[in-house]
Amino acid sequence: MSIQLIAIIVIGLLLLSYFILNTILLDKKLNEPFMQSIASNIPSNIIQIQKMYNAYKHMPTETLTLIKLKLKSYDFSNSLIVQIIELMNKLIITVAATLLGIAVTVSISMITFLQNNSELKKDYPSWVTSISDVFETISVLINKYTDFLFILLIIFIMVSTHTFFMHRRKAMVGEHLLIIEQIEKERS
Prior knowledge:
Elements: H1 3-30, H2 44-57, H3 61-73, H4 80-116, H5 118-122, H6 124-187
């Protein structure tokens, strides 16, 4: 593996750990007020909702309003990571794929030209050298193309992971907002 691929893998792993850590921290931050005991007759999948409901229900109205405002201030739709990946997708990946495609096409055209050139065939050693140079170029380009596809795979995995964690974070905040709105309805 080349150093560029290793660097991309390391960056990808760092971003993945960043996404995971941010999601865990948000989950902890949202669940801070809910360290109360719960009745054991409630199904386990409802216990967390009951904890949040009871904690929010016992909060003063002003605190509840502030928490609601803070939760609504989270914006998961327009993150910097998504903008960078979209820019990279639109510019860098498209240009790189096009350039690699052009280079492979030109190299294959050169082989066809060299194969049909009767003047070069007269000097057989230089003809063989030219053909082998073109094949080496094609071999290098194919290797670069596979590296490029590997990079695209890593980017896809990063985007998928980022999307998963953004969806998870949005769902957690939405759950809290739903409970707060229910309590506000009950209070009014």
